[in-house]
User: What shape does this take?
Amino acid sequence: MTAFLIIFIAALFAISVWQISKIVNLGKSPEHDVEAAEVANDSDNKRQGQMMLVFVIAMYIMMIACFVGYQDYFLPDAASAHGADYDNLLLLTTVVIMVVQVLTQGLLHFFSYKYHGRKGQKALFYADNDRLEFIWTAIPVVVLAGLILWGLFSWNDIMDANTDDDPLIVEVYAYQFGWKVRYSGADNTLGDANVRFIEGQNVIGIDPTDKDGMDDKVGSELHLPVNRPVIFKFRSQDVLHSAYMPHFRAQMNVVPGMVTQFKFTPSVTSEDYKSTEFMTEKVRKINEIRRQKSKELVAEGDVALDPYEFEYYLLCNKICGASHYNMQMKIVVESEEDYNEWLETQQTFEKTLANAEN
Amino acid sequence: MAQSIAVTADQGHDEEHHHHKQTFVTKYIFSTDHKMIAKQYLITGLIMGAIGIAMSVLMRLQLANPGEPNMVFEALLGKWAPDGVMDPNMYLALVTIHGTIMVFFVLTAGLSGTFSNFLIPLQIGARDMASGFMNMVSYWLFFLSAAIMIGSLFVELGPAAAGWTIYPPLSALPEAMGGSGLGMTLWLVSMAIFIASSLLGSLNYIVTVINLRTKGMSMTRLPLTIWAFFVTAIIGVVSFPVLFAAALLLIMDRSFGTSFFLSDIYIKGEVLAHQGGSPVLFEHLFWFLGHPEVYIVLLPALGITSEIIATNSRKPIFGYRAMIASILAIAFLSTIVWGHHMFVSGMNPFLGSVFTFTTLLIAIPSAVKSFNYITTLWKGNLQMNPGMLFSIGLVSTFITGGLTGIILGDSTLDINVHDTYFVVAHFHLVMGISALYGLFAGVYHWFPKMFNRMMNKNLGYVHFWLTAIGAYGVFFPMHFVGMAGLPRRYYTNTNFPYFDDLADTNKLITYFAVATAFAQLFFVYNFVKSIFFGKKAPANPWKSNTLEWTTGDTHIHGNWAGPIPTVYRWPYDYSKVNEEGEYVIAGQDYAPQHIPMQDGEEEMNH
Assistant: This one.
């Protein structure tokens, strides 16, 4: 695809150079009056008009090429309950804007071609038309109203972090340059926390006097049971970060000095997500690229790259310092049983404190 | 009749009392002549632009071959590229300073500063700005701030690197990153001076437009350029002081231990004393300027395009009043949409709903403007001068970039594309490239007026087509990279194997970026050469209606050697015909503003 694009652009470039050289030659013809030498004449108008037409056709081809060639860039189906709604809205919006894009760009460039200046051609003195103005104010109003309404309903649903459906409460904690997770334990209530409590093993500042915090568990991998709503509480110890979980269509900034939140229900386990047709194909492609790269690396005496296996990830999406580009955490979505089993292996805060004292 | 545009070159040498004897210093350096100040702005802006674009090329080189040594880095970045490998801190510094320079120094000062200064007095029929002295101070403050910003590149721990949005605490704590030390202090000082400069300029523009219009120049006879500059100045006066306040508070937090934006911070093994502040407050203050800033950048470009498209289409701009209404609507709405940069900042989700609503509202006047441009071309007699090509290009990129705004402005959809390359593609097209096209269009169109010489049109065509192809080549594929969820401001994407298949596209984008950057050399060559060796410009090369083309071809402080022309009509009487179907002025398809109504001519449609 890329090669095709490059060739295509090179061809376009060649055409423009060829056309330009023609113009330059024309410019050298002797009968031009000196006064208007650098003002577009009829042949300039014609040629530039034609270029406009070529340009818009090339643009259409480029748009199609991008949508076809880059279709596997789009994120796969969402792995969260609200994600399907998100994806539908995105699809609809994309269709609407692409239709408008094709029409308006077509008209703009076609008019530029069709009405290119000719000596003796009379432009139409057409200064105003209230009906037209009304029509193209009204159409965007209606279309946008539809999109806004859908968007606002979804937004209210997504942002409504109520606790009616017994959600799991999990804290995601950010620091330069990594993430920690805190599970709220059997009481499903997070203990109070503040950076002022950070000391020794208490790395994320849980209040050691708060009973709710005693059964909290701190880890550095995010495990979630499938199909259970989760409320994430975000906290940062130093600067702004943003917890971005693209496959769940979820993102929230992590702000020092306040707790932000986001709620969603993971709906596909890691295992199922990995084995979708889309993901197997994508991972195969990526591993092909990595093998090629490894060959070069080994030839230069470097270490080969590991083969890639897909795992959900959470990444930092707000500029936060030098290693911003490598601030990630693995997310595992698994069955309730597996999740509980894993959670058992994690240490409670009470235990951590006790160990620290020994 | 063909000569009717030249008000006079000879009639009235006795009125040359405006033309003082000038020394080199008062003419070229500390000049109070708006035309000279405009040129100073333009040239300073272009130099800053060259630096800003060069920085983007460095970033693209890094993204194409992340972490690999590059001779260019070694040569230009010195200690920031040991063995030619770019330091991650330097990458963030480039991101930051590229953004700052392009938004403020090129597209605010370079675009609005140049053309507001140049065109306001000339097009409204005034001898100069209301205060020539304030105008001069405005430029020199701008120059000072530019010098400080460039100077900050050379400090020990590096320039500001917290992004052009300088969100605290990252920007407030030297412990968080090297660039937040002296580099950030200089950034804040530079911006504070810049804001002072911008305010002096804006106040001057507003007062000039309100008070110094010539006889007959009612507000509804103003060219759309002036409307755009006028409204831009108003937005600037409303919103820049808020950024000034934010910068001041940030300076307090940094240097005097206050806690406006900081709270509960543990860094480098220590808890800081700051308590009770909120970084989200800073985001509100910043974007209260930051969003209107987008329109401060864009509206002048749209004004310039309106004028150039009408002139070169030989048609009145379609829907003159609708255009003014759109400018006003955009200006008003621009001050109440800032929250769409903050949907996932942790602010109350209800506010997100409100900002989604206002944001999508602003799409409506924008759509109206685009449709009006297209209709203006319809049944025109299009003169494809380079300025016209760039204007058409602007409408094209404005549409492409504007449409993706519908995705980003929708709080729901923003969740997953926020801060990805989708955003980068969107705003570069809609405000970066579009405004640059506006700048280029303006330069090609008014160069004859500025320097009394013509730019070479063929070089202009080459410049346009290479830039047009390159701009789409860079930014269209970038949307798809963003759709993959690739975050912006990443030094390298290699730590996420999931992004490995994007690497080729990133390379492609880099090729386009480098080619497009080099294509600008056609412009530089053309610009510099034409200043000295260009063909002598006729008085009114584009056969335009507005007043600036009536001054004759001598440049004097005071603009018109004789009396200031009186205005009898709006500026868009192109191809106007009388009842017999003949042009109202026989033999020419335009009727300049200073020509009285002809017999049997109706003042219509505006």
User: Anything to note?
Assistant: Residues 2-23+42-118 of chain A form one domain. Chain A has a mean pLDDT of 91. Residues 83-114 of chain A form the longest helix (32 residues).
